[in-house]
C-alpha cells in the first residue's frame, strides 16, 4: 500500500515456518529478504519494478544493506514493513525500512543502498528525474550505515568454510541472490556461538557478482566480544565478493 502523501510504502507478511530456526524465530536473512520484497513492490508501484527496468535491459543491484533488530519475531506472526527511498547520490539510491509487529510495536530498522545497472555493460546508470522527485517527497533517513567493518587479516582466518554456488542460488539476473551470500557469510560463525547467541544486526557490502559454480571461501573472526567480521572471496581468483560485520546477543537477552 502506497501512502501518496509522503511516498511511504507499507506491506505486511505472515512469517513462514520454513524460515524459522530451531527455536521458532525468524533470523536476519529472512527479514532482509522480506525488506527487499517490500522494496520491490514499492518500485513496481512507481513503475520501476524488476519487469519495468528489464524492458531496458537494466536491473536494480543491491550494493549494501544494514539491518538491526530490537526483537526477533516468531514464525506465524505478522510482520509490517514501511519503506521509502530517502536519498540519491552519485548514481545510488538509499532506501530505509521500519519493521513492526501486527500491533505496531517496533521490531527493527534497516537501510540499504541500490543502483540501476546496465545488464550488458554491468555499469551503474543515473536514476531518472522522476525518481528524484519521488525521493524529495519522502521522509528523511531514519538510520545511518555503521562504520566500515573493523578487524584485519589476523581475525579473518579464525573460522573458515567453503560454499559452492549452485543454479538454485541464482536469481532472474543470472547471479547468486544477495540473500544467499548473506547466509553464506553467517555459516563461518561456529555452531557453539550460534547455539548461545543470535545475530541482532548485520551490515553487508556487496563487491562483485557471484556465478553458478563459483567456490566461495568464507572467513569470520571476532575482533571484540559479540562483534564479528566476515569476508567472502572467490576461490578461483581470490577476488572479494562481499564483506560483512555482524553483532550478536545472547538468546536470553533477545526478546521475541
Uncertain segments are none
Helicity level: 10-25%
> Main β-sheet, in a few words?
12 strands, antiparallel
* General form: globular
Estimated structural class? alpha+beta
Give me the count of strands. 12
End-to-end separation:
26 Å
The name of the CATH topology of the largest domain is: Thiol Ester Dehydrase, Chain A
Count every helix, treating DSSP H or I runs of 4 or more residues as helices. 6
Domain Acyl-ACP thioesterase N-terminal hotdog: 8-124
Keywords: Fatty acid biosynthesis, Fatty acid metabolism, Hydrolase, Lipid biosynthesis, Lipid metabolism, Transit peptide
InterPro entries: Acyl-ACP_TE_C, Acyl-ACP_thioesterase_NHD, FATA/B, HotDog_dom_sf
Pfam families: Acyl-ACP_TE, Acyl-ACP_TE_C
Notes on the structure:
The protein is of the alpha+beta class and 256 residues long. The chain has two domains: 1-145, Hotdog Thioesterase (Thiol Ester Dehydrase, Chain A, Roll); 146-256, Hotdog Thioesterase (Thiol Ester Dehydrase, Chain A), CATH 3.10.129.10. It has helices spanning 28-45, 50-54, 129-137, 153-156, 178-187, 191-196; strands at residues 2-3, 8-14, 58-69, 78-89, 92-100, 106-118, 124-125, 159-164, 197-206, 215-224, 227-234, 240-250. Strands 1, 2, 3, 4, 5, 6, 7, 8, 9, 10, 11 and 12 form a twelve-stranded antiparallel sheet that branches. β11 and β12 (240-250) form a beta hairpin. α1 (28-45) packs antiparallel against α5. The longest helix is centred in the first third of the chain and has 18 residues, at 28-45. The radius of gyration is 18 Å and the shape is globular. This is Acyl-ACP thioesterase. It comes from Desulfohalobium retbaense (strain ATCC 49708 / DSM 5692 / JCM 16813 / HR100). Keywords: Fatty acid biosynthesis, Fatty acid metabolism, Hydrolase, Lipid biosynthesis, Lipid metabolism, Transit peptide. One of its GO terms (molecular function) is fatty acyl-[ACP] hydrolase activity. Belongs to the acyl-ACP thioesterase family.
Amino acid at each position: 500500500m502506497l501512502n501518496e502523501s509522503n511516498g511511504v510504502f507499507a506491506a505486511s507478511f505472515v512469517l513462514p515456518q520454513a524460515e524459522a530456526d530451531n527455536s521458532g524465530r525468524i533470523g536476519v536473512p529472512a527479514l532482509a529478504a522480506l525488506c527487499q520484497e517490500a522494496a520491490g513492490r514499492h518500485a513496481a508501484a512507481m513503475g520501476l519494478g524488476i519487469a519495468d527496468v528489464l524492458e531496458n535491459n537494466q536491473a536494480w543491484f543491491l550494493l549494501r544493506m544494514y539491518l538491526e533488530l530490537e526483537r526477533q519475531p516468531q514464525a506465524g506472526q505478522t510482520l509490517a514493513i514501511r519503506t521509502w527511498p530517502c536519498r540519491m547520490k552519485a548514481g545510488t539510491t538509499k532506501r530505509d525500512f521500519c519493521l513492526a509487529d501486527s500491533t505496531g510495536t517496533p521490531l527493527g530498522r534497516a537501510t540499504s543502498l541500490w543502483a540501476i545497472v546496465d545488464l550488458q555493460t554491468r555499469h551503474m546508470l543515473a536514476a531518472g528525474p522522476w525518481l528524484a522527485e519521488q525521493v524529495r517527497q519522502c521522509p528523511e533517513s531514519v538510520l545511518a550505515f555503521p562504520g566500515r567493518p573493523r578487524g584485519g587479516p589476523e581475525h579473518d582466518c579464525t573460522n573458515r568454510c567453503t560454499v559452492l554456488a549452485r543454479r538454485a542460488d541464482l536469481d532472474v539476473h543470472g547471479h547468486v541472490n544477495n540473500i544467499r551470500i548473506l547466509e553464506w557469510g553467517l555459516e563461518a560463525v561456529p555452531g557453539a556461538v550460534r547455539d548461545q547467541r543470535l545475530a541482532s544486526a548485520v551490515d553487508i557490502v556487496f563487491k562483485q557478482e557471484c556465478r553458478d559454480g563459483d567456490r566461495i571461501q568464507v572467513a569470520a573472526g571476532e575482533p571484540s566480544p559479540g562483534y564479528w567480521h566476515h569476508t567472502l572471496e572467490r576461490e578461483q581468483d581470490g577476488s572479494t565478493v562481499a564483506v560483512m560485520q555482524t553483532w550478536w546477543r545472547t538468546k536470553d537477552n533477545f526478546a521475541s
